Amino acid sequence: MRLFKELEARNGELTTALDRQTATADVLRIIAQSPTELQPVLDSIATSAVRLCAASDAVIERLEGDHFYNAAHAGAQMKGLMGLPLPLTRRFPGGRAILDRKRIIIDDIQLVAESEYPDTLELLKLNTVHSCAEIPLLSEGKPLGNLAVLRAEVRPFTDAEIALLETFADQAVIAIENVRLFTGRSPRRWSSRRRRARYCEPSRTHRPTCSRCSTPSCAAPPSSATRPLRRSF
Questions:
Q1: Which residues contact 117 (CB under 8 A, 6 or more apart)?
Q2: Is the per-residue pLDDT at 44 higher than 60?
Q3: Structural domains of the chain sorted by starting position, each given as residue range(s) with its CATH number in brackets
C-alpha cells in the first residue's frame, strides 16, 4: 500500500510537471505565431496561471508612467477593471512589486491588509482574496508591469508555483519586446479586451535586455493623463 501511494504521488508530480511544460510551450508558440499581437499572449498566460496554480484570478498589469492598468484577466472575480488606470503606490501588493522590483508573496492578505496594504481594503470587501503572488515584469531591471495571481482561500504558493509564475512573467516581457521589435513601436493601453493596442514611437538608440533571458526589451510606455478610477492588486 505504501509503495502504491508513493507511485501515485510520483505520477501526480510528473503529470503536473508535464502540464506546466506544455503551458509554457503553448505561450512560446503563440509568441512565435503572432509576434506583433500582444493580447493573445497575455490572455494565455493569465488563463494558464489560474489553471496551473488553482487560483481564483490572475491579472497582468502594464505600467504606463505613474499608473498601471489591467491588460489581461482570467478568473471568477476582479472583473470590470480591464483598461482602467490605477495609481502606482506601495499601499497595495502589485504597486509595491513594481516599485521595489521584486516579487511579493503573501500567505493571507486579510491579516496584513490594514497595516501593510490599506489601499486594498475596499477591493477586499468586493472580492474574496487570501493568498497572493505578485511577480514584476522586469526588463534589465526596469519594470514593465506585474503578474498578480490570487487565491480565494488561504493556500500559500509553493516554490514550484512561484518559479512557474516567474517563467510566465519572463514570457510576458518577451511578448512585449517582440511587439516593439517587429513593429518598431511600443504597445500602449487597451480600453477593453477586444480593442486593438495603440502605439507610440520609442527610442531607437538603445535596446536593453531582459535580466533573465537576454532578449531585447520593450521601452516603458509613456505616462497616461487619464484619471485613476479603481485599485487592483
A1: 91, 92, 93, 96, 109
A2: yes
A3: 2-200 (3.30.450.40)
